[in-house]
Structures are given as structure tokens and as C-alpha cells.
């Protein structure tokens, strides 16, 4: 997660602190007027505060002007779209809601340019590649914001964050700041009608090395071959020998089920490297399985597959995942625990571990 520190990073921090100090002084009348107007329009508090992950994932308190009504418990669960006011849309379209974040920049929590600070809950949802966005201070604006803002998909947005980390320079920062100023003057794709905020980030839809495609009949021979390989069987909980005829019948029977999903992990070159799936066992709980091409073990495809699989489970509305793995498979246990699974029990006299993970999707507000 830690990027190599460049001379640019040191210079940038000095420029950020100086510019933020000037901005706080020069814009103090605007800040005062905005504070009063927000208070009159939305009530106290006028400042929205929320913990966000900063550099290296360390939390800090983000400051913004409120643009939504407060949550009213008497009204029950209300969407961000319903809480967003017309006045709040103006604040966001003009970026006035961001002005209190100048303090975050001045004290070193943020930078003027960098990946936007998202929610703490998203930290565990990123792929290893997406985690790189936290190798530097988050920004008031960034490459993703001037490349489409709310109109981008999550994967596109996070890919642009990774690109910025690799390409960062004072010249690129100047270009992003210019395009940001231009966007504020002629706002587009900012909290459009029917879209108060970005949708929930459930996790990566793909990585640079892998995407999940629905399991098809053409993959079944490969599935049988892997299931009968001792290197795969050491990490899964089946004891029967697989054959193509029974696998074809199994596949046909699963196609009519609305409670089962099976995928194959495919590289950009079209090579199958993993298989995985979900089975609904309760209304909001799914059991999962995963195995990797035995010739691709230790190449990281298991982690990539799990990251996308967990994201798919969130998209399908599940709150909890469970799985079983042989107790003597130490690498598998370490992988699952590193992804947030906890051992909650054993089966077959301790030969199999039962693990679960809470994947409840949270809700942003502000």
C-alpha cells in the first residue's frame, strides 16, 4: 500500500499547507456566510463530520458543509436521495460543501489533489490493486473527479485513482485543478436528479488479472480435471470422485435454481484459472466455494477471485457468507482469515473448519 516517496511529494505537502492557509483566510467570508445559510436551511450542525481513511488507511475526521437533511428516526429508513435538498444540490454542484475540507488540507489529513477519501467500510472491499489509492493523502479533487465524476463506474473511478498514484506530478496536479475549476463553473455529472450520491461500492467487479464469467458447459471438463487433482482436493470439502457425466447432470440441474450462482475466473487472455460459487442457505446467508487451477497455486488468483466473489455476494443482497475448509490446509485458512473470515466451529471431529464473514453493506450519508 505504501508508494515510494518522491521529492514531488515533499514539495506538494508544502504547497498544500501554504495554499490551504491562504484559502482559509481569503475565503473566510464565504465560509461564514455558507455556515449561516446551511444552519438556516438545514439546522444544526452545519458541518458534516465523518471518519474517512487517509494516507495508509489511517482514519481522520473529514469536514464538509451538510447538504442533506438529518436522519429522522420517526420516518424510518430514508434514502440519501430523499434526504438531499435542492439547496444541497447547489452546494455540491458549486463545491461549496467542500470548503471546510481546507482545514483537513492545512493540518495534513488531505491534499488538494489525490484519490477522494471514501468510507472506512470500503477498506476491506478493495482489491490489492485498488488498495494502492491509500498510499498517499486523499484529495479534495482527483483524476477520477475530472474524468466523469459521478458518471463513472466504481471500477473506472478506482482505476483512475491507481493511475494517478503512478503518474502523479505537479504538472498533472495543475491540469486536474484547472479541469476542476472548469467543472465548478460548468458543472456536469454532479449529483444529478435521482442520484444524490455515488451508489454503494460492493467491491471490485474485476481486477487487471481476472474477471468472473458465468460457469458454462464448456468449462465442465476443466472443472472435473481440477476436482480430481489432489492439490485442489486438499483445500475443498468434497470426498467423491468427479466425472463428466455426473457434472453435466449437476450443471443442468443448477440452471433452474434461483438460489445458486457459479462462476469461472478468466484472465484477459481468456484462460480459466479459478472457479467459485454461492448457494443461498438462508434469506441473507450464502455458502461459498472456491478452487484455483492447481498449476496456478501461489499466483494470487485465489485472493483476486475471493475479492470479486465477496463483492458479488453483496450485490446479490447477502449479509453473511460461510464456508468450510480442511483444518490441515493452513494456506487456505490464512487466506480466508486475511479476508475477514472467522472460525466459528468445526465438523467431522475437527477435520473441517467452519468460517463465516459478515458482509453487511453500510450506507453513506452527508
Q: For the CA atoms, what is the radius of gyration?
A: 24 Å
Cα-to-Cα separation, first versus last residue: 28 Å
Residue stretches low in confidence (pLDDT < 50, at least 5 long) are 190-196, 362-366
Q: How many distinct helices?
A: 12
Would you count the extended β strands for me?
11
Give the overall shape, derived from the CA principal axes: elongated
Q: Which percent bin holds the helix content?
A: 25-40%
Q: Based on helices, strands and strand pairing, what is the structural class?
A: alpha+beta
Major sheet, described briefly? 7 strands, mixed
Task: Give the helices and strands as they follow along the chain.
Answer: HHEEHHHEEHHEHHHEEEHEHEE
Summed up, the domain count is 2
Strand content: 15-25%
Mean pLDDT: 88
**Could you give the order of strands across the largest sheet?**
5-6-7-8-9-11-10
Explain the overall architecture:
By secondary structure, this protein is of the alpha+beta class. It folds into two domains: 7-185, no CATH class; 211-358, 3-Layer(aba) Sandwich (Aminopeptidase), CATH 3.40.630. Helix content is 36%, strand content 19%. The protein contains twelve helices and eleven strands. The chain has helices at 7-26, 28-42, 80-83, 86-94, 101-106, 154-167, 170-185, 220-227, 230-233, 244-254, 301-315, 330-338; strands spanning 47-53, 59-65, 111-113, 139-141, 211-214, 260-266, 272-282, 285-292, 320-326, 342-347, 352-358. A seven-stranded mixed beta sheet has the order 5-6-7-8-9-11-10, sandwiched between helices. Strands 1-2 form a two-stranded antiparallel ribbon. Strand 10 and strand 11 form a beta hairpin. The longest helix has 20 residues, at 7-26. The two termini are 28 Å apart.
Amino acid at each position: 500500500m505504501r508508494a515510494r516517496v518522491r521529492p514531488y511529494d515533499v514539495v506538494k505537502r508544502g504547497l498544500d499547507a501554504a495554499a490551504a492557509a491562504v484559502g482559509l483566510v481569503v475565503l473566510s467570508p464565504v465560509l461564514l456566510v455558507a455556515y449561516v445559510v446551511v444552519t438556516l436551511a438545514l439546522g444544526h450542525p452545519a458541518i458534516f463530520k465523518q471518519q474517512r481513511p487517509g494516507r495508509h488507511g489511517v482514519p481522520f475526521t473529514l469536514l464538509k458543509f451538510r447538504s442533506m437533511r438529518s436522519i429522522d428516526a420517526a420516518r424510518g429508513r430514508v434514502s440519501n436521495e430523499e434526504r438531499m435538498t435542492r439547496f444541497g444540490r447547489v452546494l455540491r454542484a458549486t463545491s461549496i460543501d467542500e470548503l471546510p475540507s481546507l482545514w483537513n488540507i492545512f493540518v495534513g489529513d488531505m491534499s488538494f489533489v489525490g484519490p477522494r477519501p471514501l468510507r472506512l467500510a470500503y477498506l476491506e472491499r478493495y482489491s490489492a490493486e485498488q488498495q494502492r489509492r491509500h498510499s498517499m493523502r486523499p484529495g479534495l479533487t482527483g483524476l477520477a473527479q475530472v474524468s466523469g465524476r459521478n458518471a463513472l463506474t466504481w471500477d473506472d473511478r478506482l482505476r483512475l485513482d491507481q493511475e494517478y498514484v503512478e503518474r502523479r506530478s505537479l504538472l498533472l496536479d495543475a491540469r486536474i485543478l484547472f479541469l476542476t475549476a472548469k467543472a465548478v463553473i460548468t458543472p456536469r455529472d454532479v449529483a444529478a436528479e435521482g442520484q444524490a450520491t455515488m451508489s454503494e461500492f460492493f467491491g471490485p467487479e474485476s481486477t487487471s488479472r481476472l474477471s468472473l464469467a458465468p460457469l458454462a458447459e464448456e468449462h465442465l471438463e476443466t472443472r472435473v480435471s481440477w476436482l480430481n487433482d489432489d492439490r485442489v482436493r486438499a483445500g475443498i470439502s468434497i470426498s467423491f470422485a468427479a466425472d463428466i457425466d455426473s457434472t453435466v447432470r449437476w450443471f443442468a440441474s443448477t440452471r433452474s435454481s434461483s438460489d445458486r450462482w457459479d462462476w469461472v475466473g478468466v484472465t484477459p487472455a481468456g484462460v480459466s484459472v479459478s472457479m467459485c460459487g454461492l448457494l443461498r442457505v438462508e434469506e441473507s446467508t450464502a455458502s461459498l466455494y472456491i478452487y484455483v487451477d492447481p498449476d496456478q497455486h501461489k499466483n494470487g488468483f485465489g485472493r483476486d477471485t475471493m475479492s470479486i466473489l465477496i463483492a458479488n455476494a453483496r450485490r446479490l443482497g447477502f449479509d453473511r457468507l460461510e464456508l468450510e475448509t480442511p483444518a490441515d490446509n493452513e494456506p487456505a485458512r490464512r487466506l480466508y482469515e486475511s479476508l475477514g473470515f472467522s472460525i466459528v466451529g468445526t465438523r467431522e471431529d475437527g477435520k473441517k473448519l467452519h468460517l463465516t464473514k459478515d458482509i453487511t453493506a453500510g450506507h453513506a450519508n452527508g
